[in-house]
Each structure stands twice: as C-alpha cells, then as structure tokens.
Amino acid sequence: MKNDINLCLLGLLTLISFNSFSQNDDFVKPNFPRTATQWQALTAHDIEYAYAQTAANHPGMYDSDNPNFPTLLEDAKQHALTLAQQVTTPQGYEAAIARFNTILQDGHAGAVAVLPDEFKLPRRWPEFSAVWRGDSLRVYYSEHHKVNKGDTIIRCNNTDIKTLMRETLFNFHGEVDQPGHWWNQGWRLLIDDGNPFLPKLKNCDFVNANGATYSVILKWSVRPKSVSKQLKYAYNGDELPIGLGWPSENIAWVAMPTFSPNELQIADYQTLLDDLTKQRGKLLNAKTVVLDLRHNQGGSSFWSLKVAEQLWGEHIVNQKRAQYGRNTQVWWRASEENTNYVESLKVLLKEQPQMYDMVDKVSAGMKESLEKEAIFYVEEKAASTQAAVVAQSDFNNNVIVIAPGQCASACLDAIDTFKLFSNTMLLGAPSSADSTYMEVRLVDTPSGLTKVIIPNKVYVDRPRGKGAYYKPDIPFNELEWTTQALLARIKKL
Q1: For the chain, where do the domains classified as CATH 3.90.226.10 start and end?
Q2: C-alpha separations of 60 from 13, 55, 104 in Å
Q3: Architecture of 243-328+386-491 per CATH?
Q4: Where exactly does CATH 2.30.42.10 map onto the chain?
Q5: What is the pLDDT, as a whole number, of residue 25?
Q6: Fewest Cβ atoms nearer than 10 Å: which of 7, 55, 240, 347?
Q7: Mean pLDDT of the chain
C-alpha cells in the first residue's frame, strides 16, 4: 500500500508543479522589458537567479553519484551569461535560458522560459516539415513543389544533418546523447521561432524514394495555421482514448496516452481496470496484448502498476518490483525552501488521510534534518516481507509495448515494470532517459518569465541509472505511427 501512495503522490506533485507552467498570455506586466538593453539585463539577472536557486536547493549539488553536477551548473551559468551579453529580444532571452538548460543535460534540472504570446513571433517554415525516424530526418508534410513526403534530408547549409543538429539544434533543445531526443526534437531543425543564435538554413539536399539526390534553395515564410492540421499525426500518430479495445480478433489493445489523467480520464482508467478484470479469460487466450504508450508524457506510475497487476497478477507484480528495487533508497534534499514546500502540501492533502500521513512523515524528517544541518533526509525503507522465490504468472501471452521517443519519467517506470516479465517486447523508438532527481517543483524568477526546475529528492541505487534508456526490441522507423500502421506491423510478428 505504501508504494501505491508514493506513486499517487508523485503524480500529484507533478501536476501541482507543471500546471503552474500556464500563464495568462493576454496579460503583459508593465515592468517587462521593452528595449534591447532591458532584455539583456533581465536575461543575465534571471540566469543568475536560476543558478542561485539550483545551487541552494537541487540534490545534485551534494550527490556523490554525480560529483560533476556543481561544475556543470557553473558551466551552464557561464555559457548562458555569454549569450546574455548578446541578447536584444525576447527570443534571445528564451534562447539564453534554453542554453542554461541544455548544458545540464538533465530533464529535472535547469530552467525553462515561458514567454507570453505578446512576445512570440509567428513560426516560419521552408514550405515543408520534417520528423526524425530511425537515423534520418525525413519530410513529413510538404507544400513545396519540389519536396515530397518521405524524402530524406541529408544535408543543409552544406553540412550533413547529424552534424548540423549536434552543432545547432541540440545547443538549445533536448539531450544530444539520447536517441529518443532525436525523435522528439528533430522536427525543430526546419522551423524558425526567432532564435538569433541559430544559423539561417539557406539550402538543403534530399534523397527521394527512387534514390535520386536533389537540392532546394530554402525560402522561409510564416507557416499557415492550416498546416497544424496536417501535422496532427506527425508526433506519435493518432491518440486513442484510455481503454481496452480489440482491433483484431486475437489482438488486445490497451491505450494509455497519459499518466496524468484529469477527472474524466481517471474514470476511463477505472473502466479500463474493470474491463481487464472482466475480460481476463479472453486476454489469456489472445495472441498479443498491446500496451500503447504513444503520447504519454509521464505523471503517476500508479496507473501502469495497476494495469500490470491486472495482467500478470497483483502479488507477482509486487514481488518482482520489490526484488527490482530492493537496494533503492530515497534521499530528500532538506533545504529550507524544499522543506517548506513539502510542508505546504499537507494543506492540499488534508482530505486524503493516507497520502497526508506519508507527506507528514517526509516533512517531519526534512525538518529534523534541516535543524541538524543535515543535507538529506533519508527515507526509512520498509522491511521486506517478500518471498525469496517469485511465483509464476499464468499470463504468458506476447506483450508488445509501443514506446515513443519522448517516453520518460512515469512512462519509463511503466516500461521498467512491464519488462520485468520475459513475455514483453518493446516496439517503436528508443525511449528518453530519466533523471534520478524527482518530485519537481517550479520556482518563478522575479520577472515571471522563467520557471526554475527544482527536484526535491534523489533516488540512490535505482536499477535504471541516470541517462539509461530503452532500445526497442522491434524498431519501428516508418513515417506514419498511426494505429493502423502499427497494427499491420504487429500482425506480422
């Protein structure tokens, strides 16, 4: 039960923190910069503030498993401040903050700019859009008379695509050493949001379906709003609602597009769990059970755990997970601000006794550590009562997990659990990697234009280490990731 409460809490903290990303985009504070000099000064100030908040509160500053974090944080500040000296516009501000983030190469460290629409420029394009598939950048949609969907972009500005992306795009977006981030970020190379530090692409070379090479001089223009509709499926294909379906007589399809469900989606998950129980006999006779994680951006691991329990059996799943994480510890960074934040959560949880009690215990431990000037509060690990031998599940069907490139956080936790069982294979893209720093809160810079990312705890001796990602057992590098295309591939297995 304690594990379930922990997983619910993780989802709650994530929602509380990331809901604060939203702003009233129609409102512009009167003290926002209006001149180039003001933008330059504000950029430097917010970078210094992000550095100070991170240094004071981030567990990485004292993480013996990541001793280079303080040096990396200093490097991030210096790189960003160097750009700040050249900032004259909101787009320059946004880029400098992004550089602070990408130097750290950790999804749970750094900062992110949240500019109101007032300051954003219309997105520009060269009359075609691209996506990363496998090891190449390919055209997904085109209104250019010479460029066709499916063509491969091999170089731009006389530089091969991989080198160009490493030297430009990944300076401001994503983590360059994570294959999943190439899938997730590759489309950005052929759009222009006004970043003044990126070179303007003037020409590109392509290879078409017949293997012929051709070149195009790029002409940039504001991308029509109608293009968004054409790109609806470019990211992860179509998004299915949460639930159990049977697209083929002997193939079950469990769609889990989010682990941060709203009120209606929570009801959908309850229906899904009920359906898995009611249809268990049919599931045991299915040729394949598909667990679809397309569009999933993480949230609470509670939902994937419950799905796994319905399939493989609650007792067996819990035994496997206990063995998997038997050496893992949770260390909470007991800074004053982190401690006050966790204490404040008790007000939100007063109507949920079990979760309140857990937060209350963590809060008390952090307060005690703070009073003793200890860096961390280390959670007490419950004594294991698991049997040495794990029972065998009667669910031995082929399980295919569709893994998208952006899969991280609770989405990766789901794969951790599903892959504990030998009948599970991954189909799709390389996943993203995960930080060992968790329970994120977001801190506004004084300007209100940037959120500083502050995790409150660190996992010690977690089996899946920092930067580790999953490679697909069955790569799916097709341009289209629709349910129909994926189903056709799965039927051939």
Answers
A1: 243-328+386-491
A2: 19, 9, 11
A3: Alpha-Beta Complex (3.90)
A4: 124-222
A5: 41
A6: 347
A7: 92
DSSP one-letter string for 8-74: HHHHHHHHHHHGGG---TT---TTS--SHHHHHHHHHHHHHHHHHHHHHH-GGGG-TT-TTHHHHHH
- Apex CA 21: angle with CA 71 and CA 366, to 5°? 55
CA distance 176 to 74: 20
Residues 138, 124 contacting (CB under 8 angstroms): no
pLDDT at residue 13 in the model = 54
In the structure encoding, which two tokens stand for residue 315, read together? 């007792």
Sequence letter at residue 80: A
C-beta of residue 293 within 8 angstroms of C-beta of residue 330: no
Amino acid occupying residue 70: P
Q: Which of 304, 211, 222 is nearest to 256 (CA)?
A: 304
Question: What residues contact residue 409 under an 8 Å CB cut-off, 6+ apart?
Answer: 14, 107, 297, 298, 299, 434
Q: What is the pTM of this model?
A: 0.89
> Are the C-beta atoms of 435 and 457 separated by less than 8 Å?
no
Give the domain 124-222 fold.
Answer: Pdz3 Domain (2.30.42)
In 3-state terms, what secondary structure has residue 463? coil
HSE-CB at 204 with a 13 A cutoff on CA atoms is 27
CA dist., res. 168 & res. 272, Å (int): 44
